[in-house]
Amino acid sequence: MSTSSALDTSAPADSSAAPAIEATDLVKQYGDFTAVNNISFSVTRGESFGLLGPNGAGKSTTMRMIAAVSSRTSGTMYVSGIDPQAEGPRVRARLGVIPQQDNLDEDLTVRENLIMYGRYFGLPRKYLLAKADELLEFAQLTHKAKARVEDLSGGMKRRLTIARALINEPEILLLDEPTTGLDPQARHVLWDRLFRLKETGTTLVLTTHHMEEAEQLCDRLIVVDHGEIMAEGSPAGLIREHSTREVLELRFGMDRNPEIAAALETELGNREGLGYSHIEVLPDRLLVYADDAEAALEAIHADGRRPMTSLIRRSSLEDVFLRLTGRTLVD
């Protein structure tokens, strides 16, 4: 495919009614390497949309194209009805960006970070003084307004980075791994702030490795691997489509797990009413996927097998993610 002919920069017919983000046949190549391979997706205004995938899947590359800091090789992309490749400054003025790593100015105070960042958008100082106070309250950092950034905890720095990204009242907030490195308490505080933004109509687009985060925050998401979309839908919808209702975790001992898994495949596969799907063999345990995991466990006991431990849980987005992208570590 010719890059010059495939790159389309024509605007939609009615940009005022356009989705928050719309990508069609999007491709990004670096020499012979294809980072994003012909993906298409649309984000509705006010939606919380997620991009899930292992390292190197193309998530951050896609975010950079949305943010108008990286050009696409081919395909179309519109952000609020505007082509970011043709009108980058107009697009960036509508965005708030939360990078993977906090890039706050540690020589300034918390409040000064907000005011200085707002000046980059040409916003008047009078407006920024009031807006900074509003955002500090939103981020629960009012008591730290005069503190230097270096004195903040990791969770506080992350909340300040989000507050800073809101200084220009963006239509769309891009969050690249927003809670990486945070402890559970700080993560939940951050989720609460993001829920509040969503309720005000801000469109959220995030990448994350935390499956619980994706289930909590995303209305809809795409699972990306090797630059391609593997699945798309709501978290609950993806679980229904790609997994069973429940998962039975069994431990028979690392030396016995593979042998027992082969036997269980036949035994459970011949029983009706379990909603049995398949078994995964992990180094330390077996995962039995079935709609009725308790009935599956009873059947295993009836056949005289006694696992060292057993656990029944609901199927999760992590089960879907690992089934679609595999369990091999990607560096």
From TrEMBL:
Q: Which GO terms describe its cellular component?
A: plasma membrane
Q: Which GO terms describe its molecular function?
A: ATP binding; ATP hydrolysis activity
- One Pfam family, short name: ABC_tran
Q: Boundaries of each ABC transporter domain copy?
A: 21-251
Report the principal subcellular site: membrane
* Protein keywords: Antibiotic resistance, ATP-binding, Cell membrane, Membrane, Nucleotide-binding, Translocase, Transport
Name the domain of life this protein comes from.
Bacteria
Protein known as: ABC transporter ATP-binding protein
Q: Which residues form the signal peptide?
A: none
The biological processes this protein is annotated with in GO are: response to antibiotic
Q: Spell out the coiled coil positions from the record.
A: none
Q: Membrane topology type, per the record?
A: Peripheral membrane protein
**Family affiliation:** Belongs to the ABC transporter superfamily.
Question: Where in the cell?
Answer: Cell membrane
Record-linked InterPro entries: AAA+_ATPase, ABC_transporter-like_ATP-bd, ABC_transporter-like_CS, ABC_transporter_ATP-binding, P-loop_NTPase
